Amino acid sequence: MAEFPQLGQQCSQCKTLDFLPLICDKCKQVYCKEHHSFVAHNCPQSDKQWTPTPVSRPSESISGKCCFCNQSVLKTELVLCDKCHEKHCLSHRHYESHECKHNKTDQKPAQPLRKPLLNASAPNVKGPKNEGLARRVALMKLKQKASGQSSIPMSERLFFKLSYQKSSQLNEFESKDIFLSTEWSVGKCVDWLSTHLSVINNNNNPTQPKLVLTSDGETSEPFPMSSSLKQLESDELIQSGDNLCLKYIQ
To answer: Transmembrane region positions (predicted)?
Structure first.
């Protein structure tokens, strides 16, 4: 009963909150149904005739009507709509449940959750920036697959895509992703590659075709055997990510 302390009165005998208390017309005290008789509350005026007088219930002050369904409910159960400023019962307190007309004018069109994606079919823009990015991505993939001498420090490694000729008798080429040391000479690179790739190397025999290392291309000149890769890189003849060719020349 704590929700409606303003309703009813307490019995003078048992202190129970009664919504329909009775007033003793002798001692003028308020009692519940159980204690309204003279005997029940030991009324000091019990020698006189008693007629219980019900306390009037202020029904008009504690009840109201829902503006939507017109149902009578306690005023404490009526909710004022902040849009139409009318009172509704708990069942119709929401805008949708009492079809609030004022709420519709305040509704805003739904906004898209995100901006539309860029046109995926837009043509690729070519330029130095895009070419540089493509080269860095290709070099990163090359580093993941390249093989070489594990003792070479990372700071000295140059990575290449190598095409190589297995034999001077065959004009067929295979490919391999490799890394070499900047401290190596071209001659040492040729010797190591021939061993690593099982390529025939007869460079010590002047009568046999010579195995050389060149940049990738049919007309490319062989790199000098005595030059180091660091020197070739400094002269901008090679760089990591380039294509090299190991082949035979007469």
So the answer is: none
C-alpha 10: how far from chain center: 60
The CB density around residue 189, as the number of other CB atoms within 10 Å, is 23
Which residue shows structure tokens 């070479």? 152
192 close to 213: Cβ distance less than 8 angstroms: no
Q: Which helix (H) or strand (E) holds 63?
A: strand 63-65
pTM beyond 0.85? no
Residue 198 contacts by C-beta under 8 Å, 6 or more apart in sequence?
166
Asked whether residue 232 carries a pLDDT value surpassing 60, the answer given is yes
Q: 161 in helix, strand or coil?
A: strand
Domain 59-104 of CATH type 3.40.190.10: no
Q: What is the DSSP letter of 47?
A: T
Greater pLDDT, 26 or 138: 138
Residue 150 has pLDDT above 70, yes or no: yes
Structural element, H or E, at residue 234 = helix 229-234
- Confirm if 77 and 87 have CB atoms less than 8 A apart: no
Residue pair 166/172 in contact by the 8 Å Cβ criterion: yes
* CATH topology (fold) of 139-249: Ubiquitin-like (UB roll) (3.10.20)
What residue ranges of the chain are covered by domains with CATH 3.10.20.90? 139-249
**Every domain range in the chain assigned CATH 4.10.1110.10:** 59-104
Complete edge-to-edge strand list for the sheet that includes strand 53-54: 30-31, 22-23, 53-54
Task: Return all residues near 90 (Cβ < 8 A) that are at least 6 apart.
Answer: 73, 77, 79
Q: Which of 165, 211, 170 is nearest to 188 (CA)?
A: 211
